[in-house]
Amino acid sequence: xxxxxxxxVGNPNCGKTSLFNVASGAHEHVGNYSxxxxxxxxxxxxxxxxHFNICDxxxxxxxxxxSPEELYVRRYLKNEIPDVxxxxxxxxxxxxxxxxxxxxxDMDYRMVIALNMFDELEQSGGKIDYKHLGNMxxxxxxxxxxxxxxxxxxxxDTIIEVYEGRDESVRHVHVGLGKVIENSxxxxxxxxKKDPTCNREFSPRYLAIKxxxxxxxxxxxxxxxxxxxxLMNIRNAEVEKIETTLNEDIESAIANEKYGFISGAxxxxxxxxxxxxxxxx
Length: 281
Ligand code: GDP
Ligand code: MG
Ligand code: K
Prior knowledge:
binds potassium ion, two-stranded antiparallel sheet, 8 strands, about 15% strand, about 50% helix, binds magnesium ion, single chain
């Protein structure tokens, strides 16, 4: 049988471990850990003739180099190269959860979104056109309740479709970062593509964005390449241009554009429920 390696990626407390348990039949403790253990749990199971290896990664809000969890997840994705990433998001907290999704999209992974805690969204009267949202971001979205297992078979059916290249909502989409930042990404991306001595484990677009952000680990990955000095010259000039034009620091500028993209996509597809609105105020 074919083997599909999948990794669960998402914010803390979005239901990754519950999904891992219900899928793999493991009996791991579910709950909030006070101390953070940077570790990945692994399990496996058979489904519809496929052998699934599943990895439950630590929760992260982003894939930068700011916390041990972020670095761990990023290194895992780089070294293990899962066949399909399952990005677990909380249905009633998409604005925040989709930030990580934009980074996974930049990285160009094959991916499925588990729209988890769908029960809570429904109970609160929230509504989401998840098919439309999935088409907009080029990633299939499947509602799940990982605590009970509802939707989990549909999730794995979709993983198989994505793995086999049969899902029609999979498209190559860019999370557009606005004209000013896009104009700065282009020369970096072009140079990264041209130089064979540059890192090939991450997509040129992801690397270009991380260079602009000043990501220290990405810088280190590229230090040995022939283009490194030129990349840094371009980077410094472009960051100055962006910060002057947009009047904010580079990291805020990029984050704001990403949140703008998310708000735009959600404005068309998502209406939060009353209870959820009450919860966040
Ligand atoms: P992780 O930090 O991403 O691994 O999240 P966990 O699997 O530990 O889940 C965090 C909390 O959310 C636990 O109390 C789970 O029981 C609960 N939970 C997980 N999935 C769901 C779901 O689909 N619906 C609801 N209502 N609660 C869930
Ligand atoms: Mg967990
Ligand atoms: K909950």
